[in-house]
Specification:
Layout: E1 16-23, E2 27-34, E3 37-43, H1 46-58, H2 63-75, E4 94-95, E5 99-107, E6 115-121, E7 126-131, H3 134-148, H4 153-156, E8 160-162, E9 168-170, E10 190-195, E11 201-204, E12 211-215, E13 224-228, H5 231-247, H6 251-257, E14 261-271, E15 293-299, H7 312-324, E16 328-336, E17 339-346, E18 353-362, E19 373-381, E20 384-392, H8 400-413, E21 429-435, H9 444-452, H10 456-460, H11 464-471, E22 479-480, E23 511-517, E24 523-530, E25 542-550, E26 566-575, E27 590-596, E28 609-610, H12 629-632, E29 636-643, E30 646-654, E31 664-672, E32 675-687, H13 691-696
Parallel strand pairs: 14-15, 20-21
Antiparallel strand pairs: 1-2, 2-3, 3-4, 5-6, 5-13, 6-7, 7-10, 8-9, 11-12, 12-13, 14-25, 15-17, 16-17, 18-19, 19-20, 21-23, 22-23, 24-25, 26-32, 27-28, 27-29, 29-30, 31-32
Amino acid sequence: MFEFLTKEGFIYLEDCSITVRNVHKFHFEIHVRDKNRRYLIQALDKKDMYDWIEAIFLHRDQIYFARHILSEFSKKENNLPELGLNSFNLPKLFQDDDIISFEVERVYKAKKNAPRCFIVDRKKKTVSIIKGDLKTRAKNVKSYSKKQAKVQNKKSNKNKKINSLGVTVPKENEKDIQKGNQNVEQGVKYHKVYSSSSLFAYQRTVGGGNKLRIKWESTDLDFYTYYFTSGVVRERFINEIEDLKTSTLGKRATLAILKPQKLKVFTFTWNLGDEPPPENFDEVIPKDHKIDLFAFAVQESDYQQRELMGSTENDWLITISKALGTDYILLCKNNLLSIRLNVFVRESLLSQIHTIDTQTEATGLGHVIGNKGGVGISFYIRDIGFCFVGCHLAARTERLLIRAENYREIISGLHFGVSELDVTQQFHYLFWFGDLNYRVELPYDLGVKLAKKNKIQNLLMHDQLNKELKAGRVFEGFQEGEIKWKPTYRYDRDNSGEFSKTKFRTPSFCDRILWKCLPEVKIKQLSYKPHFDFNTSDHKPVTSVFQIEIPPWKSLDILDTRSFCVIEFPLLKGSNIGNKTNSSDQSALPISIEFFGNMIEPGSKTEIKSQNEPIFKEIPKLYPFVTSKILLKQQHVFFLVKNKTTLIGAGSVALKHACKNKPIYFESIIRRKGLYMGKLFGEVHVRWPTLEWFEKKNLLKNPKNK
């Protein structure tokens, strides 16, 4: 594509210098320097590179010199000046210090007149959307540029005018560039222009790809879906948006974003018993807390709202907001009948949050009614994924298997992010809390006696959830803090603090908070406790505070040509894939492993193996489009284990310790819908090879021999 999208339009270069860098997969970068300015052009092949150089010199009316340069390049095609390396699928764009354009390949369910390009203006802090077919427009602009090359620049400038893009247009040739929605005065029709403060939210496919869903303003009812020319272009555009939003924060806030940031996360669960909570909620909030994120999950919250509250939901939200104060705002809410989940964030953190999503799954009567089930909220802070799941599982001691079924159904029904990964596999931090309803399997009298004597460990020995966790039947891979307190269920609804004799339910630890992280992601639980002073329900609320660390939010150096990166798996084996050891069918499944990640293009996969303990030999090398070691250490590579097109399970490996001088050993549990489906183990290594390595591997080929 041929585009000059700068404020000055077609640039009349004087005393300019051009540097061409040969990048991977026949891509070229053309660096043009003119006095104090620097411009960068991405060319996807050698012919495209020649066209750009020719066009540049045409503007100086130096076509003979341009042809001479091209002939010299043709003679020395294997010895281009300043050879450098970079990743493949680089975006094709023309940029200066202030303006960058991004082409949109297509728009979901859109007509021909749909937006086809985003233009980011760094100075004005705006994103402009252009309608129309850019390819057609580009051809017209290129055709015009060749005609004007024969005219003396200084003389012809007097008879020209500047359009809205800064492109210089001759009055007598206005008709030549009219096309579709483009008009004479504008050259191209803007769909809309948004400021950085109005950019509300976006959602991307977490496993790479080129799709991006954008909600431009908070008043928009839905997201708009755009398909970029590649995943690299998408990530670059996201990076520019985040830079715009960050630039409005001020110097102090911006410097804070560029450093590692420790955050505190507060989680709360309470079965309200369909009774209003106390108006004074201050006891729940830690004193001098400095909490950054609050997540409140409540069950059986269908109570009569108090006077002037308007609704039960307003009553609950106002109660929380009063306790938190004015420094916090509601980020997101999600309800399933009387199951509610609300996330509040410190207002200063809001600019770093994106890709917000909500999901619900009912597991009640007929697996449709929402009196039981789960609600989820997910989002990203910088590049770190968070997910909160509040749930209410089946009650009664004897319904142990139904609770396990509820758990798996919630996992299957919460469709976040990548469709092949369930909710337990794709977020850096997953918090699962609520009335899980797991009981202590003891007679009522004995349970009450042990609880009153603070024989907590004796009670936990008979706790159903502890037994299920050890057996790996539910919440496989989750963690829970140490319980040092009495059961939170079932109490009389008064101030006596006595266990209820109604139906003689054994005192149990029904209200729990669990968490799960991706490999090598650190978290520290600071507290885990109940609040026994709340007497409006037969349950007691439980809270937990966690400390996490967010890595520096550094710009994605996608166009860095100083180095090239490759991710290798020298060894990759499978064990018990499909989890068929306890099955009568012991036949080997034909399986293959597909790789993907946020910074690599999807589609790479191994050969097919039909063995119970497969050893893979044809393992593809992965080429991330980010070469920064700081960023790669924060990444994970995900495995999709498939039987042809059927997904068996998924796992992941962290690259945190793989960026060293030698491969590291790893093990990855393969799970599907929360169940163990086997294991992958092997070695992984991230390397920054030299040019000679790529020539030896025949990765840099001559286009003529392609």
